[in-house]
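User: Can you fold this complex?
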Amino acid sequence: MPTAVLTPAELLAHWQGLRRVTRRVIEAFPEDQLYTFSIGGMRPFAVLTAEMLAIGVPMAKQIVTGEVTQFEEKAPATKAELLAKWDEATTELDALYNQIAPERFGETITLFGQYTGTVWSQFFYAIDNENHHRGQGYVYLRALGIEPPPFWDRQ
Amino acid sequence: MPTAVLTPAELLAHWQGLRRVTRRVIEAFPEDQLYTFSIGGMRPFAVLTAEMLAIGVPMAKQIVTGEVTQFEEKAPATKAELLAKWDEATTELDALYNQIAPERFGETITLFGQYTGTVWSQFFYAIDNENHHRGQGYVYLRALGIEPPPFWDRQ
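Assistant: Here's the predicted assembly.
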């Protein structure tokens, strides 16, 4: 089968590389600032990562099972719990994603009962949104005088 | 030909949708703040968008022509010129990208004389990086008390 652009496995590996960067951004925040620091009335980084957690695995779960999942944005109470939840999501995402047949990426689905688009576009939304909010975390860290992890390092 | 994940045309359309959001973020900045506003020593948004312009079209040009292009980050001097340059890049990107044969997306190339990866991963870097920096522009706008354009609207 000729590959158009990239394979499902390549997309997952790319996303997991970006998710490793997000994890390092969570780690770079001092515990209190992770939950309280804000610029211009925006959500603290813990809440932005809770949004990412509310999208990734629940999205993959609905794609695999067909059951409509709910969007629930809830930040774990501590940095350690947030990192543990992040790692759990890493494993769950791999397990769920690998059950999706390649021909399903062009299928149209309605996610969380309201967002309609192809399976690939749902995953792209999750990735684009994670990049968008992680980039905001970089500004928070810089404002706090903390050097963020390099964006290009995906290992 | 079965589609794996998405087609080259779908990737371009997705990117151009995201580029329309970036254009609206440029538009949302007052002219002076576009060139001067910064948080934590970061580059002003005009310079971040100059980086995007230095990546997108030159990347596509090298992929099409095989000639090594140089990375040159240079912000046009005014907001009007920056927007004009953005629109020019929109047209050039379409014209260049559409000359890339689908089977080339898996080909490994070295960009700007130093970044080695598949053609698809080069485009993904450009898109991820644009999301990352546009997200930073959202923080700048919020800090300036300006409502950014909605991230989900790609029209």
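Chain A touches chain B at residues 1-8, 10-11, 14, 18, 39-42, 102-103, 105-106, 118, 120-121, 124-125, 127-129, 131-136, 138-145, 151-152 (CB under 8 Å). Chain A has one domain: 8-143.
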